[in-house]
Amino acid sequence: MLASRFNAAVRDHPEPGHLLLYNTLTQAFVELNPEYRDTYERLAQRAPAFSDKEQAQLRELQGMGFVVADRAAEERQA
User: Beta-carbon neighbour count of residue 37 at 10 Å?
Assistant: First the structure.
């Protein structure tokens, strides 16, 4: 899994510790609480492993287009 290259992020919005994501391809917005933000940032930094809970969070973000299986899958969507 990878963070979509179409994501734009705004830190500490709408409140400190949160992350607002916008996907320019799907035009979707999502506000990540600190727990989801940490998981998303670990993914963006290419962390080697994720807990079951983190994997579930990433699958949820994948369903919204903020996380993709791989670059080839993302290119097919674009």
Answer: 19
pLDDT more than 90, % of the chain: 92
The CB density around residue 3, as the number of other CB atoms within 10 Å, is 19
d(CA 49, CA 59): 14
Amino acid at 33: N
- Whether omega before 14 lies within 30 degrees of 0, making that bond cis, reads yes
pLDDT exceeds cutoff 90 at 78: no
Q: Are 20 and 33 in contact (CB under 8 A)?
A: no
Q: For residue 3, which of 58, 54, 49 has the smallest C-alpha distance? A: 58
Q: Measured between alpha carbons, how far is 1 from 42 in angstroms, rounded to an integer? A: 11
